[in-house]
TrEMBL record:
Disordered: annotated segments: 71-93
Protein's UniProt name: Heterokaryon incompatibility protein-domain-containing protein
Originating organism: Podospora fimiseda
Biased composition (Polar residues): 75-91
InterPro entries given in the database record: HET, HetReg/Transcr_Mod
Domain Heterokaryon incompatibility: 134-270
Amino acid sequence: MARWHGKLCSEPRVTVRQDGNPCCDSCGIKCDWQELIKTQAFANSPYLIPQNEKPGELNLWWPSSVPYSAKSKDNSTTQSPVPPTNTQHSPTPVYPTVLASHEFRLVCLDANENPESPVHLTIEAFPQDDAPDYETVSYTWGGEAADSTPTKPIFIGPYWDVVFQTTNCWEMLRFIRPWRGIRMIWVDAICINQQSNLERADQVASMMQIYRNCTRVIVYLGPDIAVPPHGRFPPRRRLDDLALGPDQDQAAFKKLLQRRYFRRIWVIQELILPPQAVIPIRGVNYWADAMVYSRLKSVPDWDWNKTAAPWLQHTAQGGIWEGDLAHILRTTAKSRSSDPRDQVFGILGLVNHGPTFQADYGISAQHVFVGLFAHLISNLKFLDIFYHATGASPRSRTSLTWMPLWDLTSTWDTTFDPPPPLDMIMADTLIRSLKPAVKVSCYINFNNSWSRVVGSPHTSAASRGNVSRYIKLSSSQSVTEAHTTSIAFAGWQRATSTHKPWHTGLSFDAGAGTLSLVLTHFCPIPLQPKKIGSLGEWTMFEVRGSQGSLFLASRDPLDLIYHPNQDHLFILNPGEGSELWYLVLRLVGDSGRWTLVSTCRAMFLSLDADASDIAKGVEIRIEPGFQSLYQLLEPAARAFENRQLDEIAGILPEIATTTS
């Protein structure tokens, strides 16, 4: 931004010359913005994103909802680190005052009958509960050309101070200029001081209120779509008229939804939160309100989920009312932003259920995503994170082994999808068809409806030579109590209690990003897993033990990533009748820490004939006297490998490729 007047000019009188450049009649200086752009064009260019921290020096503290802990030099746990203090940006001619947390700015856009006249506006600050009627504008900074270079002049205030904006922002302001009087609008690029991280964070936190309190949002799709009307004013149509119209209109509308605009993360809340949206399309103003979804439900063959912007069905609904933060992340995962942190910050205004947090532009992208995944695990108990975790695949230097890749578009799109289904009966049939020597098949799962009866699939139960042999784990009540008595054991913390949910003492190390949680240690993996077949996206592997075989369903190549004498199988019990999670962890030297290798969907256990502990059908339930998975799995583990179970506090370290 630049003030181009003489230093002593205190009463500017600006007029526009025939060449289109402003000139001050008081000081006699002409604004040559073409020269100013050479030195000022990038003064308000996109902000710099802090660099990602080095491994072990993450200094995590955001969001405050996450139970972070720090290790002192004597390895004792201390309280969570204190976030750094954000400093405000210095006042400027365009932003002379600092906004209070309850304030926001509005643009007062001047009328001009000449469309080629310079864009001039003023900016005023208002309390959020004492502001005039205003509209918001939804657009993309870079437009369809993705050009975010600020090269077009916007003139602000009585001095006509110059602020350079992108071509698409400039075109948008020219398009919505009123034909008479003034127009009060909220434009993010101008109403927020983009050079102040603290103000940006405060205003992002206020966007839900800003958008919900506006009269409507104007959707600007670019100069090729938003063209002047044939008459003085544009005709008005309902948006669903395009879908209710001829087939060519429906096809044109679906093609319109493929524009880059609809892939931008910020436009989602910009269209969902306001009470009405207006979309100028080739001289016609199409409007949408909260009823557009209901009206389109009656249209044959119309399915929002098959369009390029399925979230558009929530237009003018005031929010996405079903689901928590994880659901909203899944709904918006295919949207994009130039700042990776906005994949999270850009949807916070849509969260209506569960705990949430405030954006902070003073932290790195790595910090944001570690904090996001830690929040989902600790507060929402969203364990699907482990299914999508990086594990032993060295695909990213910035991802911890317990968290998904966040810096690749191809993986982010599916990060919040549930694991693909696995047909347990088909999996068991596959195992027995490939392993005819299997005598006893035990499927371990917290599912009241499942039991495995062993025998030929073509033989009736009454005629089978072998009696039913299976283990069935079912959850008849939740584990609610937790008390801990721990002793040091081989660098682990071995729990001797019988009541210990997985999230007991859950914490994330603020420096290293390591995750601490309670897991049940089932057994070491004694031999290299062997691939025996596939079912959908899952691959079945066999691990041979001294008295039987273990079968694991995984998406990872367990046979290729196995490390002898280091890999162990752990079980995570979510409780409350949920299915178990099976985690392959790798011990890191003698540190007592583990890396996550793979998350498995199911575990099948086949034992050699006449295994004494489960020679007959056995059903094991979680009841008041039998509340620990540590106890529940003891017979199975002893029969498989003739060993004892350990319930430990496992730690998943920070570097996917760490080995000893």
